[in-house]
Amino acid sequence: MIQHISDSTVLHNGVKMPWLGLGVWKTKDGDEVIQSVKTAIQAGYRSIDTAAAYNNEAGVGAGIKEGGAAREELFITTKVWNADQGYDSTLRAFEESRRKLDLEVIDLYLIHWPVQGKYKDTWRALEKLYKDGAVRAIGVSNFQVHHLEELLAGSEVVPMVNQVECHPRLTQQELRSFCAAHRIQLEAWSPLMQGNLDIPVLTELAAKYGKSAAQIILRWDLQNGIVTIPKSVTEARIRENGNIFDFSLSEEDIAKLDALNENHRFGPDPDNFNF
């Protein structure tokens, strides 16, 4: 039972990863991202998710320092961007991310998108970083089942995490089953459907549990074994998103949310993404 903001899942290599993190996609570098990260850490969050492509790694690094938590308590994720994929270029991109974040070791390094013809070489670079101890865990983002099958075929290390768009309107059931079978932790980006929360079932459950629609979805993530990283720059919202550990959804209500699935994406389709 997940009952505290610092509760973690254990990845298949034994590393602990918090169930809840702060996403910083589209959060501006400088004051905005520094304040968001600082607020989240002071509200009890221990996981921060950024990416080279977000252009805010330096601000995330500053926010981590100002947040006041011990480095070993934190779990920091970043990602290699598509233009940097390939073996040597990924190693260079990693050094740049590490410099901007001002961190010796990154907790989780992900391939941002499955760029055809490149992601296997990129994965070899991640395997090297992992073996060298520069990262504590490695994984992928936006990989469908067929991408994962291709990656697993020639890899020494099974990805620890697959971060994908996932929410009640895109429940990713087939992908979740595949990941579970291979002990790959699924993580949800855009868990709050980019703010499209005006759905009768959500309104009904929010009233029933005395929570917001966002809190209902985030709790649904946790009870489905999905790591979740809601993004916000508002202090009240960051705190609200973290306040999901004092209630549980019934199995019947989880089923109601599962039934909202329409395979509807708010973000790009990994198979038809303009790389």
Automatic annotation (TrEMBL):
Active site, renumbered: Y54
Name of a matching Pfam family: Aldo_ket_red
SUPFAM superfamilies: NAD(P)-linked oxidoreductase
UniProt-annotated site: Lowers pKa of active site Tyr, residues: K79
InterPro entries, per database record: AKR, AKR5G, Aldo/ket_reductase_CS, NAD(P)_OxRdtase_dom_sf, NADP_OxRdtase_dom
Keyword line: NADP, Oxidoreductase
NADP-dependent oxidoreductase domain ranges (all copies): 20-262
Molecular-function GO term, any one: oxidoreductase activity, acting on the CH-OH group of donors, NAD or NADP as acceptor
Binding sites annotated in the UniProt record for substrate: H112
Family statement drawn from the similarity comment of this UniProt entry: Belongs to the aldo/keto reductase family.
Name of the protein in question: Aldo/keto reductase
Organism of origin: Paenibacillus rigui
Organism taxonomic ancestry: Bacteria, Bacillati, Bacillota, Bacilli, Bacillales
